[in-house]
Specification:
Strand content: under 5%
Distance between the termini: 34 Å
Number of domains: 1
Structural class: mainly alpha
Number of strands: 2
CATH architecture: Up-down Bundle
Oligomer: single chain
């Protein structure tokens, strides 16, 4: 199980790096987050990647009592689904995608409302949250409880990004909000 999780974690970060480098020439932005915001999210990214690796290496491990093996496999399935959904969303965004916290409105920015963005206005965050939750479930780790502050951070950042998009796209974004849920079909925030 750990080998599978490790391979997928590295694939996830490789995809992110690949897309970032691939889209580097498109990073000319009209409005960019401030330096502290970008550093905050870079720090979270580095800590998150390190934390996942420490858990996989066995340096950080707190097992939940009475954790069943079927929950491990359910977690692995959720992990893989989150990875797929997040990666699909990033590929679908194309040149509009940038790493969390770095973002902004790019030159020739388009509002993407198809593919995974029809299912959720924030499919990358939904996939990343599912990935983390599934990872902790697959390991049967006590750190599954970190999903709560992660979820709150994701909501905060997604709302901030939506405000930026609404200011730029105006009525087009407001129409999109009416037809696509914030996170899940039953979670409107």
């Amino acid at each position: 199980m750990k080998t599978l999780l490790a391979a997928v974690v590295y694939a996830f970060y490789f995809i992110r790096l690949f897309l970032f480098v691939k889209n580097k020439e498109n990073l000319k932005v009209k409005k960019l987050n401030n330096l502290w915001h970008r550093l905050f999210f870079l720090t979270i990214d580095v800590i998150g990647f390190s934390f996942l690796n420490f858990q996989l290496a066995g340096f950080v491990r707190y097992d939940l009592p009475l954790w069943s093996s079927w929950l491990n496999w359910a977690g692995a399935t959720l992990f893989m689904a989150g990875l797929f959904f997040s990666a699909w969303s990033r590929f679908h965004l194309g040149a509009n995608w940038d790493t969390a916290g770095t973002g902004g409105i790019k030159n020739n920015h388009q509002l993407i409302t198809t593919g995974p963005f029809r299912i959720s206005r924030n499919p990358i965050y939904l996939g990343t949250f599912s990935l983390f939750l599934g990872f902790e479930m697959a390991l049967g780790s006590f750190f599954i409880f970190l999903a709560i502050p992660l979820f709150l951070l994701i909501i905060w950042e997604a709302k901030r990004e939506e405000k930026l998009l609404e200011n730029f796209f105006g009525e087009e974004f407001r129409r999109y909000k009416k037809h696509s849920p914030f996170f899940f079909p039953w979670f409107t925030a």
